[in-house]
Design goal:
Strand 12 and strand 13 form a beta hairpin. By secondary structure, the chain is α/β, with parallel strands linked by helices.
Length: 627
């Protein structure tokens, strides 16, 4: 491989990663975004000492920050510009005009630094759907090795309380990994957690279902059991041994203005990157081999458009020079909806309101954790389940979702949209939602910031029951608001714009009546207790469909799993990148992050981001090996 500089002459690492001192004029690979995907790719590419790699991250290096490392403090980073881009959606027409927060990590390590630590793995049908949508070789069999490659799982021992949860729940085969750098483990569990899984066992028994793909699902957290700290992209893929590599340079607090493009011999070529450093200096750096865009679902399409790749009408409107006309850039935005109803807890059930209302408790917990990593701040366990509507279990169950779609489908869709809907309907016949319980009140209508929703200011102690729609039909978009790189993009998820999403969410909200009245979980709830919203399931009554739809519109928020805005699909079917993640119409430019996902994974997306980045690194190494 031709290198930007011989390995021996590359500058040594600087303590201040925001410094651009001794920055080389050219590198083999420039990675835009030092987040979850970007750090994986950088670490894997620099395993070859001859590959010179530069990573540019807009956020700061806070790898030793207690807010990031302490599992129990994650909520405190949401809406804080030190850690978070603090994006917000445009007003959502189908959510009564509400503005929805869009939390994304703005630090080295990206959203792996601030997410809620749950490690939910994609299902076989969900990965196989990527291939069905026109991406040869992207399926469960090819992705499973990469799901295992990035992490090491630490199962609970026979005496651990979490063991009894594992024994009565489903769990993912991908957990068999033993040699990846991200550490996963099970945290402390409670009697309430056990009751959740016992209840789901009873529900599945009543439905006469004996499979393992739906029902209570136990998921580990990204916590290193030895240190009780968050295990994230920075700790795993920018560890001391990796950060000291002479062929890797990471520059933080560096905002990329655009990818430098040139027209050569009739084709568009990515030649480098233009950035603004922390000091305000504008710098251009050459990429000898490739520019790899890993800025995330919200920022990657923005950077493409600022660089002249996107809808020519939009680019012309903002005075951006057009290099590649592709109206699909920024489209296909998908996100998991999260709908919540809070039920008053029975007397004696410990909930988060206790900590919120007593100012002496948190300092005491912090002291425990800082002393020897003991106490609840070093743990994180959220009980979940995968479920589909009861109507799908009958003799005609396989037709339940398709028949609903036929009744509620939007007429006049393109061939690409019809294929997307058909694949989505097939996936929803597997598991429609992720059911979640949180040990605190979640008052979504209280404001447009997550901090407003979890203040605990509604009288009483609550358990919040939530659903997250696994595979929404609705599609939104992300586009530039101006030609100024520091301006946030316009984010329009178009939540519930497809009527199927509202219908499915509402029907699952109705099922809360069954879930909350089934023992032993019902013993943890106060009979005829209060609700948030107050009109939900009043006096223990079941909820009609129209009221359930009202709950969905008023109490839906993002689950912070956006994907798809630089979709991997054939170009004539709405694609931005091909099956090798190369941007259509540009030589030397790939996208590697959640924006390439053609359809959302089941559950949390971070495990799929890690896996895609691992596979992308192998693709890149294979292409350039020996050159």
């Amino acid at each position: 491989m031709d290198t930007a500089l011989p390995p021996a002459t590359m500058p040594s690492h600087l303590v201040d990663t925001s410094s651009t001192d001794k920055l080389a004029e050219q590198y083999d690979f420039i990675i835009i975004g030092g987040g979850t995907a970007g750090l994986v790719v950088a670490a894997r590419l620099t395993e070859d000492p001859n590959a010179q790699v530069l990573v540019l991250e807009a956020g700061s290096n806070r790898q030793d920050d207690p807010m990031i490392l302490t599992p129990g403090l994650a909520f405190g980073m949401y809406g804080n510009p030190t850690y978070d881009w603090c994006f917000q959606s445009v007003p959502q027409a189908c959510l009564n005009g509400r503005i929805i927060p869009q939390q994304r990590g703005k630090v080295l390590g990206g959203s792996s630094s601030i997410f809620q630590l749950q490690m939910v793995y994609n299902s076989k049908p969900s990965f196989d759907a990527w291939e069905k949508l026109g991406n040869p070789g992207w399926n469960w069999d090819t992705m499973l090795p990469y799901l295992r490659k990035f992490h090491t799982h630490h199962p609970p021992g026979p005496a651990d309380k979490a063991r009894e949860i594992i024994d009565i729940s489903n769990h993912d085969d991908a957990l068999e990994s033993t040699d990846g750098p991200v550490q996963t483990s099970y945290g402390g569990t409670s009697d309430l957690d056990k009751a959740w899984y016992e209840t789901w066992g009873n529900i599945m028994k009543d439905l006469k279902y004996e499979g393992t793909d739906i029902g209570g699902l136990a998921c580990p957290a990204a916590i290193d059991p030895k240190t009780r700290t968050r295990s994230f992209a920075t700790s795993a893929f920018y560890s001391t041994d990796i950060s000291s590599r002479l062929n890797l340079r990471v520059v933080t607090d560096a905002l990329v203005s655009k990818i430098l493009l040139e027209k050569k011999a009739g084709e568009v070529v990515a030649t480098g990157v233009q950035l603004v450093s922390k000091s305000g200096k504008e710098i251009s750096i050459k990429a000898n081999r490739e520019v790899i865009l890993s800025a995330g679902t919200m920022k990657s399409p923005q950077i493409l458009e600022l660089s002249g790749i996107g809808d020519s009408k939009l680019l012309d409107q903002h005075g951006v020079e057009i290099f590649v006309d592709n109206p699909s850039v920024g489209e296909n935005l998908q996100d998991h909806l999260l709908v919540s109803v809070s039920f008053e807890a029975a007397d004696g059930v410990m909930t988060g309101e206790t900590i919120m209302r007593d100012p002496t408790i948190m300092p005491a917990l912090m002291e425990m954790y800082q002393k020897d990593q003991s106490g609840p701040l070093g743990h994180h366990f959220v009980p979940i389940a995968q479920f589909r509507l009861p109507g799908t279990f009958g003799p005609n169950g396989k037709q339940y979702i398709p028949s609903l779609l036929e009744r509620l489908s939007v007429p006049g869709g393109s061939e690409s949209e019809q294929l997307k809907d058909a694949v989505t309907a097939e996936l929803l016949s597997e598991a429609t939602v992720q059911q979640i319980i949180a040990k605190m009140q979640f008052n979504i209508s209280a404001g447009s910031k997550i901090s407003d929703m979890v203040k605990g200011d509604v009288e009483g102690n609550y358990l919040s029951f939530m659903i997250a729609l696994n595979h929404p039909f609705s599609r939104g978009n992300v586009h530039i608001a101006s030609a100024t790189p520091s301006d946030n993009p316009l984010i329009d998820p178009k939540y519930l714009s497809h009527p199927m999403d509202l219908e499915l969410c509402a029907r699952h909200i109705q099922f809360f009546s069954t879930l909350t009245s089934t023992a032993p979980l019902s013993h943890h709830l106060k009979p005829n207790g209060r609700r948030i919203p107050s009109y939900a399931f009043t006096d223990g009554k079941e909820m009609d469909l129209e009221t359930a739809k009202k709950v969905v519109k008023e109490h839906t928020i993002s689950n912070y799993h956006p994907a798809g805005t630089c979709g991997m699909r054939p170009r004539d079917m709405g694609g931005v990148v091909d099956a090798e993640l190369k941007v259509y119409g540009v030589k030397g430019l790939r996208v590697v992050d959640a924006s390439v996902f053609p359809v959302l994974p089941r559950g949390n997306i971070i495990t799929s981001v890690y896996a895609v980045a691992e596979r992308a690194a192998d693709m890149i190494k294979e292409e350039w090996m020996g050159r």
